[in-house]
Amino acid sequence: ERLVENNSKVKRLENRILFAGHVIKTKGVFELIEACKDIPDIELKLVGKVLPDVEAELRKCWGDGKGNLIITNNIPFEDVVKEMLSCSLFVLPTYTEGFPNVILESMACGCPIITTPVGAIPEMLNIGHEKECGICVKPRTIKSLKTTIVRLLEDKELANKLGENAKDRVVEQYS
Questions:
Q1: Inter-residue contact 130 to 28 (CB < 8 Å)
Q2: What's the pTM?
Q3: Cβ atoms of 69 and 34 closer than 8 Å
Q4: Which stretches does DSSP call E strand in the chain?
Q5: How confident is the model over 24-54, as pLDDT tens digits?
Q6: How many beta carbons lie within 10 A of that of residue 64, not counting itself?
Q7: The CA-based dihedral angle spanning residues 146, 148, 154, 156, taken in that order and rounded to the nearest 10 degrees
Q8: Paired strand residues for 69
Q9: How many whole angstroms separate alpha carbon 85 and alpha carbon 116?
């Protein structure tokens, strides 16, 4: 595993994309699979409650993906935090939300975040204002999601800045 050190001294694994939450269609997991399966040398990790039939369908969609797909069922919260601290990107391409705690948790871990502008997410991530804490893409847009993932994997400086902004904002606004 290749570790990348960012400015906040967190060791992040290179090209690891993390989704954490209930692994269901409305969280955008199928779009995430489609967006990631052709990106070379990535590891997509889905962490959270997943039913066997959904997992089988996701693995079928991944097929012969160019990277590595890891699907874990529920793991202890401390382990989810460790995953957040070590991922390159946290991605939640959800269709609908209220005020998702997983966004706050990933912000607290300094994750660069890609998500959708639903519910309170744009406000949480300060979208459209100075010191944005992530990037929002329209729900169900595989091409846009893929482009944004590739952009942040390649632009480490931007990814680090978004992660730092997120960590600062969660401490200032949500502690």
A1: no
A2: 0.93
A3: no
A4: 3-5, 11-13, 16-20, 43-47, 68-72, 89-92, 113-115, 134-136
A5: 999 999 999 999 999 999 999 999 999 999 9
A6: 5
A7: -140
A8: 44
A9: 21
